[in-house]
From TrEMBL:
It comes from Pan troglodytes (Chimpanzee). The keyword Repeat applies. This is FBXW12 isoform 4. GO terms for cellular component: cytoplasm. The gene is FBXW12. The lineage of its organism: Eukaryota, Metazoa, Chordata, Craniata, Vertebrata. InterPro entries: F-box-like_dom_sf (IPR036047), F-box_SCF_Substrate_Recog (IPR052121), Quino_amine_DH_bsu (IPR011044), WD40/YVTN_repeat-like_dom_sf (IPR015943). The keyword Repeat applies.
Length: 445
Protein backbone atom coordinates (compact mmCIF):
# COMPACT_ATOMS: atom_id res chain seq x y z
CA UNK A 1 0.00 0.00 0.00
CA UNK A 2 1.37 3.44 -0.90
CA UNK A 3 2.00 5.98 1.89
CA UNK A 4 -0.91 8.10 0.61
CA UNK A 5 -3.37 5.21 0.71
CA UNK A 6 -2.02 4.16 4.11
CA UNK A 7 -2.78 7.61 5.55
CA UNK A 8 -6.33 7.42 4.19
CA UNK A 9 -6.86 3.91 5.56
CA UNK A 10 -8.99 4.03 8.77
CA UNK A 11 -7.23 0.91 10.04
CA UNK A 12 -3.95 2.84 9.97
CA UNK A 13 -5.37 5.53 12.28
CA UNK A 14 -6.94 2.90 14.51
CA UNK A 15 -3.53 1.29 14.97
CA UNK A 16 -2.03 4.67 15.88
CA UNK A 17 -4.90 5.41 18.28
CA UNK A 18 -4.29 2.09 20.05
CA UNK A 19 -0.50 2.26 20.09
CA UNK A 20 1.32 1.83 23.39
CA UNK A 21 3.59 4.75 22.49
CA UNK A 22 0.66 7.18 22.35
CA UNK A 23 -1.06 6.02 25.54
CA UNK A 24 2.18 5.73 27.52
CA UNK A 25 3.02 9.32 26.51
CA UNK A 26 -0.42 10.50 27.67
CA UNK A 27 0.01 8.60 30.94
CA UNK A 28 3.43 10.12 31.58
CA UNK A 29 2.02 13.60 30.98
CA UNK A 30 -0.69 13.12 33.61
CA UNK A 31 0.87 10.86 36.25
CA UNK A 32 4.24 10.13 37.79
CA UNK A 33 4.56 6.66 36.25
CA UNK A 34 8.00 6.86 34.64
CA UNK A 35 9.02 3.77 36.65
CA UNK A 36 5.87 1.90 35.60
CA UNK A 37 6.83 -1.10 33.44
CA UNK A 38 5.11 -3.78 31.39
CA UNK A 39 5.47 -6.01 34.44
CA UNK A 40 3.14 -3.65 36.32
CA UNK A 41 0.70 -3.70 33.41
CA UNK A 42 0.54 -7.50 33.21
CA UNK A 43 -1.80 -8.42 30.37
CA UNK A 44 -3.17 -4.88 30.06
CA UNK A 45 -2.20 -2.26 27.48
CA UNK A 46 -1.20 1.34 28.15
CA UNK A 47 -4.54 2.45 26.70
CA UNK A 48 -6.40 0.26 29.20
CA UNK A 49 -4.21 1.63 32.00
CA UNK A 50 -4.91 5.25 31.02
CA UNK A 51 -8.67 4.81 30.69
CA UNK A 52 -8.82 2.81 33.92
CA UNK A 53 -6.99 5.55 35.83
CA UNK A 54 -9.24 8.28 34.45
CA UNK A 55 -12.36 6.33 35.41
CA UNK A 56 -11.07 6.01 38.98
CA UNK A 57 -10.28 9.73 39.18
CA UNK A 58 -13.68 10.75 37.85
CA UNK A 59 -15.42 8.34 40.21
CA UNK A 60 -14.05 10.26 43.19
CA UNK A 61 -14.59 13.64 41.50
CA UNK A 62 -18.28 12.86 40.84
CA UNK A 63 -18.93 11.27 44.23
CA UNK A 64 -21.44 12.80 46.64
CA UNK A 65 -21.51 12.44 50.44
CA UNK A 66 -23.90 9.47 50.31
CA UNK A 67 -21.38 7.59 48.11
CA UNK A 68 -18.88 7.39 50.98
CA UNK A 69 -18.69 5.00 53.89
CA UNK A 70 -17.24 6.74 56.95
CA UNK A 71 -15.31 4.80 59.60
CA UNK A 72 -13.76 6.22 62.77
CA UNK A 73 -10.87 4.49 64.53
CA UNK A 74 -9.69 4.58 68.11
CA UNK A 75 -7.12 7.09 69.26
CA UNK A 76 -3.89 7.65 67.34
CA UNK A 77 -0.91 9.81 68.20
CA UNK A 78 -1.04 13.37 66.94
CA UNK A 79 2.70 14.13 66.73
CA UNK A 80 3.46 12.42 63.39
CA UNK A 81 1.99 12.60 59.91
CA UNK A 82 -0.25 10.14 58.12
CA UNK A 83 0.99 8.56 54.91
CA UNK A 84 -0.33 6.17 52.27
CA UNK A 85 1.60 2.90 52.28
CA UNK A 86 -0.23 1.75 49.16
CA UNK A 87 -3.25 3.17 47.45
CA UNK A 88 -5.83 2.96 44.75
CA UNK A 89 -3.86 5.21 42.42
CA UNK A 90 -1.46 3.92 39.73
CA UNK A 91 -2.70 0.39 39.26
CA UNK A 92 -4.86 -1.68 36.93
CA UNK A 93 -5.98 -3.86 39.82
CA UNK A 94 -9.57 -3.13 40.86
CA UNK A 95 -8.94 -4.91 44.17
CA UNK A 96 -6.03 -2.66 45.17
CA UNK A 97 -6.56 -1.52 48.75
CA UNK A 98 -5.93 1.87 50.29
CA UNK A 99 -3.43 1.22 53.09
CA UNK A 100 -2.26 4.03 55.37
CA UNK A 101 0.36 4.29 58.09
CA UNK A 102 -0.20 6.02 61.41
CA UNK A 103 1.25 5.96 64.91
CA UNK A 104 -0.62 4.73 68.00
CA UNK A 105 -0.48 6.53 71.37
CA UNK A 106 1.68 3.63 72.60
CA UNK A 107 4.18 4.48 69.84
CA UNK A 108 3.46 1.57 67.54
CA UNK A 109 3.68 2.08 63.80
CA UNK A 110 0.36 0.80 62.42
CA UNK A 111 -0.98 -0.05 58.95
CA UNK A 112 -4.72 0.35 58.32
CA UNK A 113 -6.91 -1.02 55.55
CA UNK A 114 -9.14 1.98 54.82
CA UNK A 115 -11.88 0.05 53.00
CA UNK A 116 -12.16 -2.58 55.76
CA UNK A 117 -11.47 -0.20 58.67
CA UNK A 118 -9.02 -2.78 59.99
CA UNK A 119 -5.55 -2.48 61.48
CA UNK A 120 -3.64 -5.11 59.49
CA UNK A 121 -0.19 -4.72 61.09
CA UNK A 122 1.59 -3.01 63.96
CA UNK A 123 5.20 -2.78 65.04
CA UNK A 124 6.41 -3.55 68.55
CA UNK A 125 5.98 -0.64 70.99
CA UNK A 126 8.90 1.74 70.52
CA UNK A 127 10.94 3.10 73.41
CA UNK A 128 11.19 6.57 71.89
CA UNK A 129 8.46 8.66 70.26
CA UNK A 130 8.32 8.87 66.48
CA UNK A 131 9.16 12.32 65.12
CA UNK A 132 8.83 11.75 61.36
CA UNK A 133 7.15 9.32 58.97
CA UNK A 134 7.40 8.94 55.20
CA UNK A 135 6.47 6.08 52.87
CA UNK A 136 7.51 4.68 49.51
CA UNK A 137 4.24 3.16 48.26
CA UNK A 138 5.83 1.62 45.15
CA UNK A 139 7.81 -0.70 47.45
CA UNK A 140 5.37 -0.90 50.37
CA UNK A 141 7.96 0.66 52.71
CA UNK A 142 7.54 3.00 55.68
CA UNK A 143 10.49 4.98 57.07
CA UNK A 144 10.44 6.50 60.55
CA UNK A 145 12.65 8.78 62.60
CA UNK A 146 12.39 8.79 66.41
CA UNK A 147 13.48 11.23 69.09
CA UNK A 148 16.61 9.21 69.72
CA UNK A 149 17.65 10.22 66.17
CA UNK A 150 17.23 6.69 64.81
CA UNK A 151 15.96 5.92 61.29
CA UNK A 152 14.09 2.64 60.79
CA UNK A 153 12.77 1.03 57.61
CA UNK A 154 9.64 -1.16 57.84
CA UNK A 155 7.85 -3.34 55.30
CA UNK A 156 4.74 -3.33 57.52
CA UNK A 157 4.55 -7.11 57.36
CA UNK A 158 7.43 -8.42 59.47
CA UNK A 159 7.61 -7.73 63.19
CA UNK A 160 10.96 -5.99 63.19
CA UNK A 161 12.43 -3.20 61.09
CA UNK A 162 14.34 -4.15 57.92
CA UNK A 163 17.11 -1.69 58.72
CA UNK A 164 18.07 0.56 61.64
CA UNK A 165 20.45 3.52 61.48
CA UNK A 166 21.34 5.95 64.31
CA UNK A 167 21.98 9.51 63.10
CA UNK A 168 24.41 12.03 64.64
CA UNK A 169 21.86 14.87 64.58
CA UNK A 170 18.06 15.23 64.77
CA UNK A 171 16.50 15.11 61.32
CA UNK A 172 13.74 17.54 60.43
CA UNK A 173 12.78 16.22 56.99
CA UNK A 174 12.97 13.01 54.95
CA UNK A 175 12.10 12.20 51.34
CA UNK A 176 11.82 8.67 49.91
CA UNK A 177 11.81 8.28 46.14
CA UNK A 178 12.26 5.74 43.37
CA UNK A 179 14.60 6.30 40.41
CA UNK A 180 15.78 4.17 37.51
CA UNK A 181 18.79 3.35 39.71
CA UNK A 182 16.61 2.10 42.57
CA UNK A 183 14.97 3.40 45.76
CA UNK A 184 16.65 6.02 47.95
CA UNK A 185 16.06 8.01 51.12
CA UNK A 186 17.18 11.62 51.47
CA UNK A 187 17.45 13.15 54.96
CA UNK A 188 18.01 16.76 56.06
CA UNK A 189 19.40 17.21 59.57
CA UNK A 190 19.76 19.91 62.21
CA UNK A 191 23.40 20.59 61.24
CA UNK A 192 22.52 21.50 57.64
CA UNK A 193 23.68 18.21 56.09
CA UNK A 194 21.85 16.19 53.41
CA UNK A 195 22.35 12.44 53.64
CA UNK A 196 21.41 10.00 50.88
CA UNK A 197 20.87 6.30 51.66
CA UNK A 198 19.75 3.26 49.70
CA UNK A 199 16.45 1.58 50.55
CA UNK A 200 15.63 -0.65 52.23
CA UNK A 201 19.15 -1.28 53.53
CA UNK A 202 20.10 2.31 54.52
CA UNK A 203 23.53 1.98 52.92
CA UNK A 204 25.34 5.33 52.88
CA UNK A 205 25.56 6.94 49.43
CA UNK A 206 26.57 10.56 50.11
CA UNK A 207 26.67 13.37 52.64
CA UNK A 208 26.58 17.03 51.60
CA UNK A 209 26.78 20.12 53.80
CA UNK A 210 24.16 22.42 52.33
CA UNK A 211 23.76 25.02 55.10
CA UNK A 212 25.17 26.06 58.45
CA UNK A 213 21.68 25.71 59.88
CA UNK A 214 19.10 22.94 60.07
CA UNK A 215 17.25 21.85 56.92
CA UNK A 216 13.46 22.09 57.14
CA UNK A 217 12.39 21.60 53.51
CA UNK A 218 13.61 18.83 51.22
CA UNK A 219 11.65 18.12 48.02
CA UNK A 220 12.47 16.00 44.95
CA UNK A 221 11.19 17.13 41.56
CA UNK A 222 8.55 14.91 39.88
CA UNK A 223 11.13 13.41 37.51
CA UNK A 224 13.62 12.96 40.41
CA UNK A 225 16.21 15.05 38.56
CA UNK A 226 16.36 17.91 41.08
CA UNK A 227 16.36 18.27 44.88
CA UNK A 228 15.22 21.47 46.58
CA UNK A 229 16.60 22.23 50.06
CA UNK A 230 15.85 25.10 52.43
CA UNK A 231 17.33 25.86 55.85
CA UNK A 232 15.76 27.06 59.10
CA UNK A 233 17.47 30.44 58.96
CA UNK A 234 15.17 32.56 56.82
CA UNK A 235 17.97 34.79 55.52
CA UNK A 236 19.72 31.83 53.90
CA UNK A 237 19.16 31.33 50.17
CA UNK A 238 17.54 27.98 49.29
CA UNK A 239 19.45 25.58 47.02
CA UNK A 240 18.64 23.17 44.22
CA UNK A 241 20.90 20.11 43.72
CA UNK A 242 21.23 17.83 40.72
CA UNK A 243 20.05 14.48 42.09
CA UNK A 244 22.53 12.49 40.02
CA UNK A 245 25.45 14.22 41.72
CA UNK A 246 24.06 13.13 45.11
CA UNK A 247 23.50 9.54 43.97
CA UNK A 248 26.86 9.24 42.19
CA UNK A 249 29.25 11.41 44.20
CA UNK A 250 32.75 11.85 42.81
CA UNK A 251 35.59 11.80 45.30
CA UNK A 252 36.88 15.30 45.96
CA UNK A 253 34.16 17.03 43.94
CA UNK A 254 31.27 19.15 45.18
CA UNK A 255 27.75 18.06 44.12
CA UNK A 256 26.20 20.28 41.47
CA UNK A 257 23.88 22.88 42.96
CA UNK A 258 22.73 26.45 42.60
CA UNK A 259 21.19 29.01 44.94
CA UNK A 260 17.77 30.48 44.25
CA UNK A 261 18.15 34.25 44.78
CA UNK A 262 15.23 34.77 47.19
CA UNK A 263 15.36 34.77 50.97
CA UNK A 264 12.55 34.32 53.49
CA UNK A 265 11.33 31.11 51.82
CA UNK A 266 8.34 29.73 53.74
CA UNK A 267 7.33 26.96 51.33
CA UNK A 268 8.05 25.58 47.87
CA UNK A 269 6.55 23.13 45.40
CA UNK A 270 7.59 21.54 42.15
CA UNK A 271 5.20 21.57 39.19
CA UNK A 272 3.97 18.07 38.23
CA UNK A 273 3.52 18.91 34.53
CA UNK A 274 6.63 21.08 33.98
CA UNK A 275 9.12 18.97 35.86
CA UNK A 276 12.00 21.48 36.00
CA UNK A 277 9.79 24.28 37.37
CA UNK A 278 9.56 25.26 41.04
CA UNK A 279 7.59 27.98 42.80
CA UNK A 280 8.71 29.50 46.11
CA UNK A 281 6.48 31.25 48.63
CA UNK A 282 8.47 34.01 50.31
CA UNK A 283 7.09 35.78 53.38
CA UNK A 284 8.33 38.71 55.44
CA UNK A 285 9.12 38.12 59.10
CA UNK A 286 5.92 39.94 60.08
CA UNK A 287 3.84 37.80 57.71
CA UNK A 288 2.31 40.89 56.12
CA UNK A 289 4.02 40.49 52.75
CA UNK A 290 3.86 37.31 50.63
CA UNK A 291 5.46 36.84 47.23
CA UNK A 292 5.41 33.87 44.83
CA UNK A 293 8.47 33.40 42.61
CA UNK A 294 8.69 30.77 39.86
CA UNK A 295 11.98 29.41 38.49
CA UNK A 296 12.94 27.08 35.66
CA UNK A 297 16.04 24.92 36.20
CA UNK A 298 18.39 23.70 33.49
CA UNK A 299 21.93 22.37 33.10
CA UNK A 300 24.50 23.86 30.75
CA UNK A 301 28.01 22.87 29.65
CA UNK A 302 30.50 25.69 30.27
CA UNK A 303 34.21 25.21 29.69
CA UNK A 304 33.87 21.45 29.82
CA UNK A 305 31.95 21.58 33.10
CA UNK A 306 28.25 21.19 33.82
CA UNK A 307 26.56 24.01 35.73
CA UNK A 308 22.99 24.48 36.96
CA UNK A 309 21.17 27.64 35.95
CA UNK A 310 17.99 28.96 37.53
CA UNK A 311 15.85 31.42 35.55
CA UNK A 312 13.18 33.47 37.30
CA UNK A 313 10.26 33.39 34.86
CA UNK A 314 7.49 35.00 36.90
CA UNK A 315 6.62 36.53 40.27
CA UNK A 316 3.88 38.46 42.02
CA UNK A 317 2.97 39.81 45.44
CA UNK A 318 -0.23 38.80 47.20
CA UNK A 319 -2.58 41.76 47.72
CA UNK A 320 -2.25 43.32 51.16
CA UNK A 321 -5.95 42.81 52.01
CA UNK A 322 -5.66 39.02 51.69
CA UNK A 323 -4.85 36.98 54.76
CA UNK A 324 -1.31 35.59 54.75
CA UNK A 325 -1.24 32.19 52.95
CA UNK A 326 -0.02 29.15 54.87
CA UNK A 327 -0.27 26.41 52.22
CA UNK A 328 0.36 26.38 48.48
CA UNK A 329 0.40 23.99 45.53
CA UNK A 330 0.80 23.91 41.76
CA UNK A 331 -0.51 21.94 38.81
CA UNK A 332 0.31 22.55 35.15
CA UNK A 333 3.25 24.95 35.58
CA UNK A 334 1.25 28.12 35.01
CA UNK A 335 -1.08 28.15 38.04
CA UNK A 336 -0.62 28.42 41.80
CA UNK A 337 -3.29 27.47 44.34
CA UNK A 338 -3.19 28.69 47.93
CA UNK A 339 -5.45 29.39 50.90
CA UNK A 340 -6.30 32.76 52.41
CA UNK A 341 -8.66 32.72 55.38
CA UNK A 342 -11.80 30.82 54.29
CA UNK A 343 -10.95 31.15 50.59
CA UNK A 344 -9.14 28.89 48.16
CA UNK A 345 -7.51 31.03 45.46
CA UNK A 346 -6.13 30.04 42.06
CA UNK A 347 -3.70 32.48 40.43
CA UNK A 348 -1.57 32.42 37.32
CA UNK A 349 2.16 32.47 38.07
CA UNK A 350 2.14 36.12 36.90
CA UNK A 351 -0.46 37.14 39.49
CA UNK A 352 -3.79 37.05 37.62
CA UNK A 353 -6.70 35.76 39.74
CA UNK A 354 -8.28 32.81 37.87
CA UNK A 355 -10.69 31.37 40.44
CA UNK A 356 -11.91 32.07 43.95
CA UNK A 357 -13.69 29.37 45.96
CA UNK A 358 -15.83 30.12 49.03
CA UNK A 359 -16.83 26.63 50.13
CA UNK A 360 -15.97 27.11 53.81
CA UNK A 361 -17.59 29.40 56.36
CA UNK A 362 -14.54 29.55 58.62
CA UNK A 363 -10.81 29.81 57.90
CA UNK A 364 -9.24 26.87 56.07
CA UNK A 365 -7.08 25.05 58.62
CA UNK A 366 -5.57 22.30 56.47
CA UNK A 367 -4.73 21.78 52.82
CA UNK A 368 -3.51 18.97 50.59
CA UNK A 369 -2.67 18.99 46.87
CA UNK A 370 -1.42 16.46 44.32
CA UNK A 371 -1.51 16.31 40.48
CA UNK A 372 -5.19 15.22 40.53
CA UNK A 373 -6.90 16.65 43.61
CA UNK A 374 -6.96 19.54 46.07
CA UNK A 375 -8.45 19.04 49.55
CA UNK A 376 -9.29 21.78 52.04
CA UNK A 377 -10.59 21.49 55.60
CA UNK A 378 -12.25 23.99 57.91
CA UNK A 379 -13.40 23.28 61.44
CA UNK A 380 -15.08 19.88 60.89
CA UNK A 381 -15.65 19.72 57.14
CA UNK A 382 -13.72 18.69 54.03
CA UNK A 383 -14.03 19.94 50.46
CA UNK A 384 -12.74 18.07 47.41
CA UNK A 385 -11.58 19.74 44.18
CA UNK A 386 -10.18 18.19 41.00
CA UNK A 387 -7.75 19.63 38.47
CA UNK A 388 -9.16 19.76 34.94
CA UNK A 389 -7.14 17.66 32.51
CA UNK A 390 -4.87 19.64 30.20
CA UNK A 391 -5.23 22.87 32.21
CA UNK A 392 -8.59 23.62 30.63
CA UNK A 393 -11.06 26.11 32.07
CA UNK A 394 -12.44 26.00 34.75
CA UNK A 395 -8.96 24.73 35.75
CA UNK A 396 -10.05 23.55 39.20
CA UNK A 397 -13.46 21.95 39.66
CA UNK A 398 -15.34 22.00 42.97
CA UNK A 399 -16.54 18.45 43.58
CA UNK A 400 -17.81 17.37 46.98
CA UNK A 401 -18.31 18.76 50.49
CA UNK A 402 -18.21 16.39 53.47
CA UNK A 403 -19.63 17.77 56.69
CA UNK A 404 -18.77 16.49 60.17
CA UNK A 405 -19.98 12.89 60.31
CA UNK A 406 -17.84 11.91 63.30
CA UNK A 407 -19.27 14.42 65.83
CA UNK A 408 -20.51 11.58 68.06
CA UNK A 409 -16.93 10.46 68.59
CA UNK A 410 -15.33 13.72 69.65
CA UNK A 411 -16.03 17.30 70.64
CA UNK A 412 -13.85 20.41 70.63
CA UNK A 413 -11.69 19.08 67.80
CA UNK A 414 -10.09 20.19 64.57
CA UNK A 415 -8.77 18.44 61.47
CA UNK A 416 -4.98 18.38 61.68
CA UNK A 417 -4.19 16.34 58.56
CA UNK A 418 -5.96 15.31 55.35
CA UNK A 419 -5.06 13.26 52.25
CA UNK A 420 -6.70 11.14 49.57
CA UNK A 421 -6.24 8.64 46.77
CA UNK A 422 -8.73 7.64 44.07
CA UNK A 423 -10.89 5.60 46.43
CA UNK A 424 -10.54 7.15 49.88
CA UNK A 425 -10.17 10.31 51.94
CA UNK A 426 -8.40 10.12 55.30
CA UNK A 427 -8.44 12.69 58.12
CA UNK A 428 -6.67 12.98 61.40
CA UNK A 429 -8.95 14.82 63.83
CA UNK A 430 -7.11 16.19 66.83
CA UNK A 431 -8.90 16.50 70.13
CA UNK A 432 -8.09 19.37 72.45
CA UNK A 433 -7.20 17.39 75.58
CA UNK A 434 -6.32 13.97 74.22
CA UNK A 435 -4.76 12.24 71.20
CA UNK A 436 -6.36 12.11 67.75
CA UNK A 437 -8.87 9.94 65.95
CA UNK A 438 -8.55 8.61 62.43
CA UNK A 439 -11.52 9.27 60.13
CA UNK A 440 -11.52 7.21 56.93
CA UNK A 441 -13.91 7.75 54.02
CA UNK A 442 -13.99 5.06 51.36
CA UNK A 443 -16.04 5.08 48.18
CA UNK A 444 -18.90 2.61 48.28
CA UNK A 445 -18.22 0.84 44.98
Amino acid sequence: MSPTHQIQDPKHWNRIADSDYLWRSLSLQRWDCSNFTNQHLGTHTWKQFFLHQRRKELRLALAQPHNFICKVTKNIAFETELAYLSGNRLTVDEQEKSIICSVSPKQELCAWDVQEDTMIWSSPVQEFHFSNLVTLPQMHLAITMDRKKTIKVWNCQDRDALAVLPMPQPCYCMEAYLTKDGPFLMVGDAAGDIYTFTLPGLRDVSKVTAFQYGIVLLHCSPDKKWVFACGTYSRTLPQVFLTESLLRPSEGSVPLSTFLPHKLCASACWTPKVKNRITLMSQSSTGKKTEFITFDLTTKKTGGQTVIQAYEIASFQVAAHLKCPIWMGASDGYMIVFTSGPYLLLFSITGFLLQRFEDHQAAINNFWVDPCYVLTTSENSVHVYMWEEGGRHPYLRSCCHLENTWHDHTTDSCISSVMCDNASIVLRVRKVSDSSILVMYSLNT
